[in-house]
Design a protein that fits this description.
Mean pLDDT: 83
Shape: globular
Helix content: 25-40%
Structural class: alpha+beta
Strand order of the largest sheet: 3-2-1-4-5-8-7-6
Distance between the termini: 92 Å
Radius of gyration: 31 Å
Number of strands: 8
Low-confidence stretches: 362-380
Strand content: 15-25%
Length: 380
């Protein structure tokens, strides 16, 4: 049933031709995330990590984990890998596995569901010769961020090179006599340090360096989708206690959020409103209000479509939250207590007594106020 609904939703997405491409390419972001599960025997047997991570030599920085962190690390989780349509801001396909699943294997499993000549967009976790070779040989493009763990070769003499032509050719591939993979190296200035990208476009497609940077910045929409799913849709931790039921809950939660966002996107597309202004929280609120008031007739100005048209994010400019002047230093000085007489010694607690009403001088106390009895107050 879920597979049939996925195919129907994909077909409906392809009908939105105005937002189908980005710079002439069908771009799909790929990313994975963990979904928490209740700590039950069923989940621990089915979704606990099956691989034991390699232990390194202990150093001053890498000591044994605290008990609380060990408990969190062994918490049962599901791994969700999602293919996300960048232009439409909607999911395309997903795979679910244990917490130690390989997101690259999940993407290769979903590769045949992608349109031909599409571009896959990923972060530094989607590097690897075998993964890139499988994607490129299928006729699709690849744009990923690389770090210091990837060696880029120049002037190998394999193809006609330009200033930005690089090759990925690890030692294992060279030993197997596999050909090097040719990419274009693009450096984008990030907020703190440069970002190194490698891109290989589908045959017949071209992008400038500025367009490559725009495409990579658009990858952030998949992170926003995960926030909508976990925070707004309240699926950070599933509720099912059985392993089989948890997978069903996760599948139908994804289908439900996908259908909701697709319906809202179609309504904004009819009104020629940019999809970037779609508010997932406002759309979810509109559906819940209609479902709650189904027994009462809807008002003329409060139909579902009209509610979705108003479910938009604000357009006013927002300040950069990374540069807020917090915490602010308190400017007012604290109130100084008046100096006390050094000769006035408080009565020890063991010697305090209740005096008769005639000796109540200095014993007036207010509710919520602490009063200290001094020896000078007992003088008649």
């Amino acid at each position: 049933m879920v597979t049939v609904l996925q195919q129907a939703l994909r077909q409906r997405m392809q009908e939105m031709t105005a937002q189908w491409t980005l710079h002439g390419l069908v771009v799909f972001g790929m990313d994975g995330s963990r979904i928490d599960l209740p700590r039950t025997k069923s989940h621990e047997q089915a979704s606990a990590p099956s691989r034991t991570p390699s232990r390194r030599t202990k150093t001053a920085r890498g000591k044994r984990r605290a008990p609380s962190r060990q408990k969190h690390a062994s918490h049962p989780q599901l791994w969700l890998t999602t293919l996300f349509h960048v232009s439409l801001h909607l999911p395309w396909n997903w795979r679910i596995g244990p917490a130690d699943s390989s997101e690259r294997s999940h993407v290769l499993d979903m590769l045949e569901t992608l349109p031909d000549a599409s571009l896959l967009l990923g972060d530094a976790g989607f590097v690897g010769y075998d993964f890139a070779q499988t994607v490129l040989t299928s006729g699709r493009g690849l744009l990923v961020r690389v770090g210091a763990n990837v060696t880029l070769w120049k002037q190998l003499g394999y193809v006609r090179e330009s200033m930005k032509t690089v090759s990925v050719w690890p030692d294992q591939a060279a030993a197997r006599r596999d050909p090097p993979l040719v990419f274009r190296h693009v450096v984008v200035q990030g907020p703190r340090h440069p970002i190194h990208l490698i891109v290989s476009l589908p045959p017949g497609q071209r992008l400038s360096d500025r367009q490559v940077a725009d495409v990579y910045r658009a990858r952030w929409v998949i992170e926003v989708f995960y926030r909508h799913f976990k925070q707004t849709f309240a699926r950070r931790k599933l509720r099912s206690h059985a392993a089989d039921n948890a997978r069903v809950e996760l599948e139908w939660s994804l289908v439900g959020l996908w259908s909701l966002l697709l319906y809202a996107s179609d309504e904004l597309n009819r009104q020629e409103i940019p999809l970037e202004r779609l508010s997932a929280a406002g759309s979810l609120r509109a559906f819940r209000q209609i479902a709650r008031d189904y027994y009462h007739p809807a008002e003329t100005s409060n139909t579902l479509r009209q509610r979705l048209r108003r479910a938009l994010i604000d357009t006013y400019p927002r300040a950069n939250k990374a540069s807020r002047d917090y915490p602010q230093k308190k400017q007012t000085r604290p109130h100084r207590r008046p100096p006390q007489d050094p000769h006035r010694q408080p009565i020890p607690k063991a010697t305090r007594t209740i005096l008769p009403p005639t000796h109540n001088k200095g014993l007036t106390a207010f509710r919520g106020t602490r009063h200290t009895l001094y020896s000078s107050d007992l003088e008649p």
